[in-house]
Amino acid sequence: MPKSQPGLKGRLGGGLMRLAGEHLTCVRGGREVFSALNFSLAGGEALLVTGPNGAGKSSLLRMIAGLVRQTTGNLVLEGGATEASIAEQAHYLGHQDAIKPSLSVAENLRFWAEFLGAGGDFAAALTAVSLVPLADLPAGYLSAGQRRRLSVARLVAVKRPIWLLDEPTSALDAASQARLADLMGAHLSSGGLIVAAAHGPIGLERARELRMGPT
Questions:
Q1: 215 in a domain, yes or no?
Q2: Which entry of 82, 160, 206, 214 is 20 to 30 Å from 199 by CA?
Q3: Which residues pair with 13 in a beta bridge?
C-alpha cells in the first residue's frame, strides 16, 4: 500500500468527501470480471458490496486500493488531499492478514505505522481490539481471530479516510465483530467512508448495497 497519511479532512465548500466509480470495467487474465460499473458514496456513508463468488467484489476493492488497474472508466475522489492519490488515502483490509510472525504484536503495528508514514497511536489501537495483554507476544503465536484483530488495529492506529474491507469479520468471534461494528460506526461518524465486500451482515446497518454479478 502506498505511503502517506492524509487525515480525515476532505471538506469542499462545507460538503463531505465523495468517492465515485464511473463506468468501471475490470479485465483480469483475459476475462472480463465486471463492466460498466457505477457507484458513489459521500463522507459518513458505507457501501456494502455483495454478490456470488467470482462476481468481482474483491477486484473492485483492490481497484480502489490501486492494486488492480481499471480497464475502462474513472475513479474520482472529491474533497480528499489533493497531493495524494486515492490509494494513499485508503486502508485495504484483504483476505490475508499482512503480519510478520517473528515480530511482536506491537512491533507489527509500529512497522505498519512507519511504512504508512505516521507515528500511530499504538496504545489506543491495541485497546480498541483488546490486544493490549498480547502486545509483546510474537505474532506467529496468534490465533486466526487475533491476527484479524491486529489487522483491524492498523485502521485505528493510522488515520485514513477510506476503509476498504474485504470480508472483515472473517475469523472474528461475536465480541470482536461487535467491536469492529463500533469502530466502523465511529469512522463513519467522523466523516470517513467505508466500502466493504461481504456475503452477510457485518454490522453496517445503514449501508447502501451494491449487488454485483447475476441478480
A1: no
A2: 160
A3: none
Three cell numbers, residue 201: 451482515
Reported pTM: 0.90
Find out whether 68 and 26 touch, Cβ atoms under 8 Å.
yes
Distances (CA, A) of 210 to 51, 107, 142: 8, 37, 34
**Coil, strand or helix: which one is 75?**
strand
**Tally of structural domains, the chain:** 1
Residue 47 included in any domain: yes
Closest by CA position to 208, among listed 58, 51, 46, 20: 46
Q: Which three cell numbers stand for residue 127?
A: 485497546
C-alpha cell at 39: 457507484
Residue pLDDT, tens place only, 68-101: 999 999 999 999 888 899 999 999 999 888 899 9
3-state secondary structure of 159: coil
